[in-house]
Amino acid sequence: MPRSPIEVPFPPSESYSEIIDVRSESEFAQDCIPGAINLPVLHDRERAEVGTTYHQRSPFEARKQGAAVVARNVAAHLEAHFACRDRDYTPLIYCWRGGQRSSSLAQVLAQIGWRTLVLQGGYKAYRAYVRQQLAARLPQFRYRILCGLTGTGKTQLLHQLQSRGVQVLDLEGLAHHRGSLLGQVWGDRPQAQPAQKAFESQLLQAVQALDPRYPVWVESESSKVGNIHLPAPLWQAMKQASCVEIALPVAERVEWLLQQYPHWRDNPQALKHKLSSLKAQHGRQRVARWHHLVDTGQLRTLVRELLECHYDPAYRRSMERTFAGRVELSLPLPDHSAGSIARALDALVARSQPQVLEQARACHAGEDGGDSN
């Protein structure tokens, strides 16, 4: 029996079988509702052609052209994606703002007899929900910052903390970025960073899995991770958090980096290209020396000089600017051995307990009060 589409808000209270995004491929790639599949009713090229007709001929001709294209695409989806769906199938459909594109598919599916849901306001309603939820949730957490110079293994420590049941927010992982030139993995097809909107969607998913009763560990960052901007509520909360600093000898950090990033040896030309981007900061002569170290295979010397001349000073400036006076504990490790890492993890897990956190917060409150007098 034919039905009419049912409009629902986001998040929907109605149950559904799957979420269908009918926007174009490029719109879907920028961001989508988690779990959605992409069945465009207008592909990128087709949208461009209809847009050209709209501007060069008339809106009426564009609507005729668009309707024909949409009808063909809907028919193709019916013969492929929907062919095996049973009568209890219930899709939730959305487009950019809950308009003609979602309606074009929803009307057909409803006429077939499926209970068809359409998202009111489309993707824009979902984006408003993401922004509202991030603004509300991010300040609720008590953040703990794991800091340390490049090569101290902060990211790996975070992952191991997570494996011990401690709450962790891996911002570099969500942003697909390792924070520095040294940490980027090069290749024919390097992993691109997500769009800002997609990052925020993934961040919300991660935050929704966290419990505000317990602290959340994050790695010390700037307000940007590559090209991704951290939401202001998160960045402001991080700047007020206390820090635990991991410290290792520079020789140990050099060895750690060489083990972690074999692509430096495997792709010397790419490494030299990356080093060339530092000419403005360090001058042609120094970068030429670094190129020579690459050409002659002196990677230990190269990495040590990069740490001592570039990364360590930059990191210290950033820490002084952002987290000055907030380092409550320094954990000096002799090396990256399993025993050293285990001792560091024990200390970090202990500081994740609520009573320890409250004591640290009380100390900071006392210090802040003393500074204001």
Structural account:
- The chain is α/β, with parallel strands linked by helices and 373 residues long.
- The chain folds into 2 domains: 6-131, Oxidized Rhodanese, domain 1 (3-Layer(aba) Sandwich), CATH 3.40.250.10; 141-372, Rossmann fold (3-Layer(aba) Sandwich), CATH 3.40.50.
- It has 16 helices and 11 strands.
- The chain has helices at 25-30, 44-56, 59-80, 100-112, 122-137, 154-163, 171-175, 196-208, 232-239, 250-260, 263-266, 268-276, 279-295, 299-322, 338-350, 354-372; strands at residues 6-8, 18-21, 37-38, 91-94, 117-119, 143-148, 216-219, 224-225, 228-229, 242-247, 327-332.
- The strands form 3 sheets. Strands 1-5-4-2-3 form a 5-stranded parallel sheet. A 4-stranded parallel sheet has the order 7-6-10-11, with helices on both faces. A two-stranded antiparallel ribbon has the order 8-9.
- The model has no long low-confidence stretch (mean pLDDT 91).
Secondary-structure element pattern, one letter each: EEHEHHEHEHEHHHEEEHEHHHHHEHH
Number of strands: 11
What CATH calls the topology of the largest domain is Rossmann fold
Number of helices: 16
Helix/strand-derived class? Answer: alpha/beta
- CATH class category of the largest domain: Alpha Beta
CATH architecture of the largest domain: 3-Layer(aba) Sandwich
Total domain modules: 2
What is the distance, rounded to the nearest whole angstrom, between the alpha carbons of the first and last residues?
76 Å
